[in-house]
Design brief:
The chain is mainly α. Helices cover about 80% and strands about 0% of the residues. The chain contains 18 helices and two strands. Strands 1-2 form a two-stranded antiparallel ribbon. It starts with a helix and ends with a helix.
Length: about 400
């Protein structure tokens, strides 16, 4: 069987798990920043408003650059960007470990944000190339690595940053170095697979009757609203729920972080299950369930005791985070042939909306209280009702057939 046929028809699990590992390492680095907010709050005497702006800077940096990188690499893929992106994160980790002021922390998170802005659209394209016929599963494998990395950050905070302080972040320079090594391996495969795909496209093409532009715009608008509800709520939990537990239940920083770990660890499991479940029950149904299904648990969480708070965090994490990889694949099918642009746009929106939410919520917490912010954000998953208005899976995937190129042009 030819290389081009292999690229198109077989799932390359070695590459999928490699990019999932890099996603794990990258998101562990990125998630360290909100996880160490309580440490920075004390060591640098930061206000909640400043903490919100740190999260805003991290996420908006990634948000602005990811769609641009995706658009650029859709025209001409750049495999060398994979290790280069992680190098920016390495520099950010080193600066964050030694930062002695609010401005230096902002500089560090800009570098980490740049690293993520390169990783996500390019690695998502690699997942698309390595997926073969299993796009939902491939995106879930890629995303699961990121969610595991996010889940580990609170544990690192409890085990490393609380006893060793801010400088303990320097240990993550070794994590970044390991990710760079793996990215060189992935970039080598990516270069060959991209060439094979280009060769294949000269012989065959996919003919798909596109949805009307109005329908696509309408559907993308709904997806953006769903991302808003999902990632502003996640920002409220990862950035401020630990403070809520410390204030209302007199927990230590270490114990409060365990609840965030529970939410994100359950989210990693949900992310892995999301793709296969969407393949079975439909992407629109899975998107709807992943957001609206969170609402009963999010509304109960601010009033639960510690035992039930742990249970509810697990339910919220599993359900809420099961849908993002499905949203990305759904959007890729809305705009076929623009994998990098779509991936960059949606990863960028995820970061950007989370960043804006963090800045607004931090300011709101200073003006009101942490309790008010957590109770207000509990209503965000109700926006998941909008998923009912998305085009059905059948409508999204109709009339897709592979034809020789000369037939398509005829």
């Amino acid at each position: 069987m030819s290389d081009s046929s292999s690229v198109r028809n077989h799932t390359v699990y070695a590459i999928l798990f490699s990019i999932s590992l890099v996603h794990l390492l990258n998101d562990a680095i990125q998630s360290v920043i909100p996880a160490v907010f309580p440490i920075l709050h004390n060591s640098l005497q930061l206000s909640f408003t400043q903490i919100g702006w740190i999260a805003f800077t991290l996420n908006v940096t990634a948000s602005l650059f990811q769609p641009l990188i995706g658009l650029y690499t859709d025209k001409k893929p750049k495999p060398f960007l994979l290790p280069a992106g992680v190098f920016f994160s390495l520099l950010g980790v080193i600066l964050l470990a030694v930062a002695s002021s609010f401005v230096q922390v902002l500089g560090a998170v800009v570098l980490v944000g740049l690293g993520s802005s390169v990783l996500h659209p390019e690695a998502s394209r690699v997942a698309y190339l390595a997926a073969g016929p299993r796009r939902g599963l491939a995106q879930s494998i890629f995303q699961t690595g990121g969610n595991i990395g996010q889940a580990l950050a609170p544990i690192f905070t409890a085990l490393i940053f609380v006893p060793f302080g801010q400088f303990g972040i320097i240990w993550f320079s070794f994590v970044a170095a390991a990710a760079i090594v793996v990215q060189f391996f992935v970039a080598k495969w990516y270069g060959k697979a991209g060439s094979s795909r280009s060769a294949a496209s000269s012989k065959a093409s996919v003919s798909k009757q596109p949805l009307p532009r109005k329908t696509v715009t309408y559907a993308i608008s709904i997806l953006i609203m769903l991302l808003f509800s999902k990632f502003v709520y996640v920002a409220s939990m990862t950035g401020f729920y630990a403070f809520y537990l410390i204030e209302h239940n007199q927990l230590s920083v270490e114990k409060a972080q365990l609840f965030i770990f529970t939410l994100l660890a359950a989210g990693a499991v949900g992310t892995f299950m999301g793709g296969p479940l969407a393949d079975r029950f439909g992407r629109r149904n899975m998107i709807w369930f992943s957001i609206l299904g969170t609402a009963p648990f999010s509304l109960l969480l601010p009033y639960a005791n510690l035992f039930w708070a742990g249970v509810l965090c697990a339910c919220i994490g599993f359900i809420l985070l099961s849908g993002f990889s499905v949203i990305v694949v759904y959007a890729q099918e809305l705009l076929p042939g623009k994998v990098g642009t779509v991936s960059g746009l949606f990863f960028g929106l995820a970061f950007g909306l989370g960043g804006i939410g963090s800045a607004v919520l931090g300011t709101l917490a200073d003006a009101t209280s942490i309790s008010f912010v957590i109770k207000l954000c509990a209503f965000l998953p109700l926006i998941g009702l909008l998923a009912a208005f998305l085009p059905s899976d059948k409508k999204l995937n109709m009339t897709q057939i592979e034809l020789p190129q000369n037939v398509v042009k005829a």
